[in-house]
Amino acid sequence: MPQRIITSTPADYHLPFEEIYVAVNKDPVSNENLHAWFMPAADRPGRRVLLYLHGSALNIGANIDHAQRFHNLGFSVFLLSYRGYGKSAGISPSEESVYVDAETAWDYLVTDRKFEPSSVFIYGHSLGGAVAIQLALTHPDAGGVIVEGTFTSIAEMARLHSQYRILPLDIIIKHRFDSVNKVGRLEVPVLFIHGTSDERVPYSMTRELFERTASEKRIKLILGGGHNNTAAVGGEEYLQTVRDFFRFAGSHSALNVKRGD
C-alpha cells in the first residue's frame, strides 16, 4: 500500500536531518535511487545508528513520530522509503526489491557513513519486521534487531481468513516473507515487540517467532497495544524495554569481541 505524497518531514518535528538519495547498485537491471532521511544523533553522531524499515503502507513521512523515539534515545536514525514508496524510484514493490533496498541502506551506512556493523541496529515494523529479519540474517555482525508487530509468513496471514484456507497457498503466493523459517538461523540479538490488541497481526505470531529464534532474544507484549500504536500505548514501559535491549545487545557484542568471534 505505497503512497507517493509525503505529508511530513523531520523538520516538522524539529529534528536535524539530511535528505539523501542512494543508488540501488545491487540490482543489476536497475538505475533507481532510494529516498531517505538521515537524522544524526545530537551527541556523538557517529556512535550508533538505527536503520528503520517501515511497514507496507504509506512511506517514511508516516514514521517520523516513531523514529523520533529512537533518536531521543541517542541514536542516529536512517529512515528510507522502499522503491515504489514516497520519492523513491520504481513502481512495483516486491519481496525481492524490498530486501535489496534494505541491503542498499546497510551498505550506505557501513561504506559511505563508516559505521561499524556492530553499531548498526535494525528496526522493522510489520512488513518491515520481515525485511529486518532477512537483513539481520545476511549480516550477523549487526548490533541487534528489533522486530515489532510482524507476522510469521504471508501464507500464515492468509490462513487467518477462511476464504483462503482452501487454496494451495504455499504454491500460489508470490511474496512469501517466510520469517518463521528464517529466525532459527539468526545470530544477532533480537527483541520482539507486539501489542496484545493488534487488530491486523495476532501477537501469537510474535510468540512463535520468538520461540523459534536461535540467537539471544527477548520478547515484550504491550497490553492493549494495537498494530500502529504500541509505543504510544506502552509509553515509558516500551521505551525502557528498548533501552534494556540496547544495553543487552551491546554487552553481547562486547563479549563476542572479547572472545574473538
Polypeptide structure, described:
With 261 residues, the protein is an alpha/beta fold. The chain has one domain: Alpha/Beta hydrolase fold, catalytic domain (Rossmann fold), CATH 3.40.50. It has 8 helices and 8 strands. It has helices at 64-72, 95-112, 127-138, 154-158, 169-172, 203-212, 230-234, 236-259; strands at 18-23, 33-39, 49-53, 76-80, 120-125, 144-148, 190-195, 217-222. It starts with 17 loop residues before the first strand and ends with a helix.
Largest sheet: 8 strands, mixed
What strand order characterises the main sheet? 1-2-4-3-5-6-7-8
Mean pLDDT: 88
Stated plainly, the CATH topology is called Rossmann fold
As residue ranges, the low-confidence spans are: 257-261
Calculate the terminal CA-CA distance, rounded to whole Å. Answer: 41 Å
| CATH superfamily placement | Alpha/Beta hydrolase fold, catalytic domain
What class do helices, strands and sheet pairing give?
alpha/beta
CATH class: Alpha Beta
CATH-level-2 architecture: 3-Layer(aba) Sandwich
Order of helices and strands: EEEHEHEHEHHEHEHH
What number of domains? 1
Shape summary: globular
Beta-strand proportion: 15-25%
**Count of DSSP E strands?**
8
Count of helical segments? 8
Rg: 17 Å
Helix content: 25-40%
